[in-house]
């Protein structure tokens, strides 16, 4: 009798991450029937018991570095649990690593958005393995600076086949790509890199140096920044050479990270590694920035996916857990916390997909191009920044049950900070926004015009405040964060309005754009129907 289990929620597995998210379904309304059928399958898998167990195992059984074999020969290999490879195999088969580069796909014209939905749901399942997935997709953007290299590598990357074997790239069924930029003395300041690249002829260089962070060390090749005679340049450096021998990679250790456990991040030395120049000599930063921009979109999508998964756990728990004779979800304090969380998750989701849509439309629409350039750092800043606090609050809804490792919230909480740090911390994003103000102020004007149009009656007043904030930031670098957050909140509110989110958009506008200062969740007042917000955005599974 002492082991009878009562008053505990059933497992959340068995639902559908796509069908169970009305906002996500609405964002997919214009997709083809074929694409929506595929998203339905991804949604079923993401919340299946099988997938949840793979996510657990990939993180509890961490990757291990083997520098040498039993005889003393260098190996420089990382061993992963089979669960990690299973997740990679599924994500590659779903095209998360390269679908935006494929020809003849049903989602032509919506590639970033369609991939974004798949990526969003997968991030809610397990985010660590998405690091090499993101880098592979984004690396192809950098490779376009060298059409010859793109023609050689892209067909082998876009096969939708995951090949974990330790073989030369030419012998593999599918390839993944990583990057090595960060050095211990420079960090974000990549121009301070000391890794050297010596030309050996025909666009090839010998690379020697030390990278402080190089994620996904078992990728087949890496985009590496190094100092050539002409200055900092970008190189494609394969891990293995054509004969199967190592290409001068000496892995020193794997980083013992707070989270992101399933993904190995390494410290590596290059000893006369052969690399091929990508882009122009001395143009390394310019070449790599196209890649960085795409990874920032993925940071936002992944953070939004993590937040959605975390709040789903909280809502599910409170609908089944009884306290003092009532379900937790019926208690006024709890439902207002959940509704407050739901508003930010909905806004972060809408804003992230607004950016994905801008990426899709940038080539044909000047307004979309302006949004993509000006708002990428803004969206990345705000969506990634709010993730840790939202996951924590969702964890608190479960109490002690949310704090133990058996609950996925512990994994989500460890994962939550990484996207705000990776590919540019908050200050780096604010500085990027300030560069837009100084170098291309017309881009922000175009963004403000779009925000005003989508917000409706509150648009003129909001954009007046934003223009004042822009004016302050022009002369005060320290105001960059204030401007980034104000822009993000206004753009998120505008997108909710454009989507016809009704009372949900109203509640977000009133509490975020015109509300009192707040530092925790649960601050909605009785004017807003908290239960309606939660039930609309998190309907009970059928």
Any descriptors?
542 residues, alpha+beta, seven-stranded mixed sheet, two-stranded antiparallel sheet, 19 helices
What does this structure look like?
The chain is α+β, with helices and mostly antiparallel strands and 542 residues long. The chain is 53% helix and 13% strand. A hairpin with a 2-residue loop joins strand 10 (322-323) and strand 11 (326-327). The longest helix has 37 residues, at 284-320. It is globular, with a radius of gyration of 23 Å. The model has no long low-confidence stretch (mean pLDDT 96).
**Helix coverage percent:** 40-55%
Approximately what portion of the residues adopt beta-strand conformation? 5-15%
In DSSP terms, counting alpha (H) and pi (I) runs of 4 or more, how many helices? 19
- The helix/strand series, from N terminus to C terminus, equals HHHEEHHHHEEEEEEEHEEHHHHHHHHHHH
Radius of gyration over alpha carbons? 23 Å
Helix/strand-derived category reads alpha+beta
Described by the principal axes of the CA atoms, the overall outline is globular
What is the first-to-last residue Cα distance? 32 Å
> Segments where pLDDT lies below 50 for 5+ residues?
none
Report the oligomer.
single chain
Mean pLDDT: 96
Largest sheet: 7 strands, mixed
Total DSSP E strands? 11
